[in-house]
Amino acid sequence: MAFAHQEKIIAITVGILVTFWASSIKGSYQVYFLDLASLCGLGRGMFSLSSALFGLSIGILSPVVGWICDRIGPALTILSGVVVAIVTYLAMMLPFNFWAFLFLFGVLAAYSLTAMTFVPLALLVDKIFANKNKGMAYAAITNGTAIGFMVLSPLWVWLNRFLTWKELSFIILAVFASVIFPACLWLCKVFPRRQFVSTVKSMNTTSEPWFHHLRQPLFILLAISFGGCGASMAYIDVHLVPLLQERFSNPNSSATIVASSLSILGAAELIGAFVIGYILRFSTPAIVLSILYLVRAISLVIVIYAQDLFMCFIFAVLFGLSYMGTVIVTSLMCLKAYGEKIKGQIFGCLFTVHQLFVFGTVWLGGLTYDWTGSYDLITWSVTGLCLISMGIGLFFYYSDSHNPSAKSRVTATP
Predict the structure, then answer these.
(1) Which residues form a coiled coil (predicted)?
(2) Which domains does the chain have, with CATH numbers?
């Protein structure tokens, strides 16, 4: 079925709007992390269990959301995420209780974010855009998250000065209910379920035992490498803001540095996704992956020693440029290695491993802070994981160079 230009514009516009505001789920938690831990009277190790569970739930719920997409279509799946977000933030306005918050944020908010972002949007883009335009369309839609870094993160930092978590939850709820919900109803009207039913029914189910690949060295190495991506992203999502807030103790300078660093990181992410996509047209994916992880490791070393705004900016630029690149390159390597028929299942399993590293980094980061009074240990640990991921990329590159007929095909140029 061909889709009109106007329908494609609607898909991109609503998609950007959804991913932009969906970023408020992680962004607001990130800035209010210390306030929430203090509110429930818990140490960072115990309270970080909420964000650890959030990351783990995303890994578990991603295939569930994919199953839902196959049956009701991407537009209705996105709408379900918005509805759950509205319910979640409505419940956030009740008297604060850690165990209730653990379920609300760790499970419901995780479903909401998963249902509003990568999985259903990928299906929507695959359906309505031609092959040559899929990559740019998907990059445009998902960069709503980067714009959220640039625009919303400074807003949360500013609001954190005088609004409580309950009051902030009302603002997030109000935008979801008054803006995002009607936009998603519009999306459902333009792209009803019936336009996706034929695709779902015609899918060629196969009895190929794709899961046997999970025991092979190729998958294990890709999974470990992707774990470095999950660990470093978790570090940014949860531990970076508290680290900067404590290092720059003056409230005014702290707010400026945190807000500026997150905005620059978002801008660099926005640019980096398109730059990596362009570079991959001419370069071997494995070597690009190694360079990205090296850049990310260097950025983390910089943040350990950063004592002024300039050094924080350098960190934000370097990390931001690599932010989405590791996901893009790993996805491409997975496609080259396993082919289209089983790439979805394999990449889903890789993403689950990615989220397991998120879980471990978030929780262990909080625990080690409680033990040592510093984020240095978790920062060095994540840096080490990035270097391991870099080494795996180099292994793929050089093993293929010495064996051009290697079955892995992960270093093939697209």
Answers:
(1) none
(2) 1-202 (1.20.1250.20), 210-414 (1.20.1250.20)
